[in-house]
């Protein structure tokens, strides 16, 4: 379950950002999850709660935005938006795609007091 390691990394980033900005308690966190990140949303919520235990983010509300992946098509030389690994280029139908974005998880923003 790689969700736990992703959430541990996110919790580290949240702690660092809260410290830098003088936030004593994080109330909300927004994560951007790429469509190809291979994470289960319910597992992400569960692991996030574990990763944030005993931190400034404990008990915060987690918001997850799934973002489409971007790929470069080798055959028609165009960018394409895809939602799965086995995607085809919507422009030419080619399967020769190179993923350029959307296979990661990012801390988009956080709110606190």
* CATH fold descriptor: hypothetical protein PF0899 fold
The secondary structure category is alpha+beta
Q: Detail the poorly predicted runs.
A: none
Q: Which CATH first-tier class would you pick?
A: Alpha Beta
Strand order of the largest sheet: 2-1-6
Compute the CA-based radius of gyration: 17 Å
For the record, give the distance between the C-alpha atoms at the N and C termini, rounded to a whole number: 32 Å
Q: What is the CATH-assigned architecture?
A: 2-Layer Sandwich
**Biggest β-sheet: count, sense, barrel?**
3 strands, mixed
Overall number of domains? 1
Please, what is the average pLDDT?
94
Number of discrete helical segments: 2
Summarize the structure.
With 113 residues, the protein is α+β, with helices and mostly antiparallel strands.
């Amino acid at each position: 379950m790689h969700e736990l390691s992703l959430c541990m990394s996110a919790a580290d980033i949240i702690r660092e950002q809260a410290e830098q900005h003088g936030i004593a308690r994080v109330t909300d966190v927004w994560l951007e999850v790429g469509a190809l990140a291979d994470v289960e949303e319910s597992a992400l919520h569960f692991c996030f709660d574990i990763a944030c235990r005993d931190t400034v983010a404990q008990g915060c509300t987690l918001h997850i935005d799934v973002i489409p992946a971007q790929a470069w098509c080798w055959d028609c030389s165009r960018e394409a938006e895809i939602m799965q690994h086995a995607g085809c280029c919507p422009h030419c139908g080619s399967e020769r795609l190179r993923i350029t974005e959307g296979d990661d998880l990012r801390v988009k923003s956080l709110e606190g007091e």
